[in-house]
């Protein structure tokens, strides 16, 4: 029998860390936060064998779907496929932090748009927790939109899902923009090349979509607003420079992931310091 941390080390030799976490969470029926706090736990030989077999399947087929068809994201079950990026642990941290602000600043109401929604885990999780929040999910990929629509149906959530290249086709006004866009530069080499490239790469050293969103955000934002970005490990200063280039009279907060690095940025416009300090 092995400890969870031993299985994680084994898995990362062959597949990407997000796939390792998804496998273990499914096998142990826990979420990623519980997994992070259970690394010293010993798993039985049956779970260990299933995990190793699953890792080998993904390694040989280059398909996560050869082992699992859904993930536990913030205690909700989402369908996944090989053509849509598997959500990382950090994305769950971003969603949990975002919901804290949505609750305190917007009372769980208003309009939110999830830009580059992929399988829909971000926007749908937020909608599940705030039924009075109007949520739009957009993506450039028809396939991703189909997966997001299926996940919305499975969770019985009423959201708007449509195709747009970021804000290009967006007409509504929003209190909240949230996005985990492609942010890897051209020289990034994915682990074992088994992640969808459309969800990974962005021009301008990985900054293209952040700048595209910020350049056009003024067209769709309400007077009081929040913008939330998940970012790459070393992108904080570059993204902050873009934010300050395009937005004025704002407050900014960042969040460091439990795994290290500041992985998300929260921009507040139209709020006074007292409102923000009370959170």
Strand runs, count: 11
Assigned CATH architecture of the largest domain: 3-Layer(aba) Sandwich
As laid out across the biggest beta sheet, the strand order is 7-6-5-8-9-11-10
Write down the CATH topology of the largest domain. Answer: Rossmann fold
Based on CA atoms alone, the radius of gyration comes out at 19 Å
Strand content: 15-25%
Tally of separate helices: 11
| Separation of the first and last Cα atoms | 44 Å
Low-pLDDT residue spans: none
Rough outline: globular
CATH C-level name of the largest domain: Alpha Beta
Give your account of this protein's structure.
This protein has 279 residues and is of the alpha/beta class. The protein has two domains: 67 residues, no CATH class; 188 residues, Vaccinia Virus protein VP39 (Rossmann fold, 3-Layer(aba) Sandwich). The chain is built from eleven helices and eleven strands. It has a seven-stranded mixed beta sheet with strand order 7-6-5-8-9-11-10, with helices on both faces. The longest helix has 18 residues. The radius of gyration is 19 Å and the shape is globular. The model has no long low-confidence stretch (mean pLDDT 90).
